[in-house]
Amino acid sequence: MNRPSVNETDMNLAQHGSAEAFEQIVRSHQRCVRAFVARHVPDLHTADEVSQEVFLAAHRNLAQFSGRGSISAWLMGIARNQVLTWHRKRRSRSVNSLDEMLDTAAVQGVLDDAFDDEAESRRIDALKSCLQSLDESSRDMIVQFYYQSETADGIGARLGKPPGTIRMALLRIRRKLRMCIDGKLTDTGRLP
Fold it and tell me: Mean pLDDT over all residues of the chain?
């Protein structure tokens, strides 16, 4: 007998009014949604705002989820629409023709970016593996900066190093992670 996945169970409960089940859906999918959104907006603050709009829209439209596709795919469709809405609003306020051209290119990028659950899952697995391969101090710096939202100034003060040194170290670590991820995805012959 096929048992429904935790996500399907959570979705069913959320559709019937369970706030806890919807919170679990958000926790399970927020990183993936935020990563998708962040690829299409100019900064992390905007990515956070648009990601919140994605989950608000998802909550308002729980009844629209039919179960024919995955919850991830449904959320990515909402994310895509929210990013496009954000770009349309920005374009309507834009007065600079260069901004308009960049915005048009960004919208086209969103339209061209078909979300691929499997490819995204491979990227996330590669990232997790690459993070584990970092030395402890590099991994701690990444966690503090990206997951605990600590500033380079704060990290530098705690480590007794100038903020510029911390920023350069983060740049080197990101490059190392990018090379590691690319290598893992290429080695498996599945570069998305």
Answer: 80
Q: Which of 75-89, 97-111, 112-126 has the highest mean pLDDT?
A: 75-89
Q: Which domains does the chain have, with CATH numbers?
A: 6-112 (1.10.1740.10), 117-187 (1.10.10.10)
Q: What is the dihedral of CA 116, 122, 124, 127, to 10 degrees?
A: -140
Give the span between the Cα atoms of 150 and 26, in whole angstroms.
23
> 94 in helix, strand or coil?
coil
Residues ≥6 apart with Cβ < 8 Å to 20: 13
Q: What's the whole-model pTM score?
A: 0.51
The residue among 34, 37, 33, 28 whose CA lies nearest residue 5 is 28
Q: What share of the chain is helix, strand, coil (3-state, %, to 5)?
A: 80, 0, 20
Q: What is the mean pLDDT of residues 25-49?
A: 88
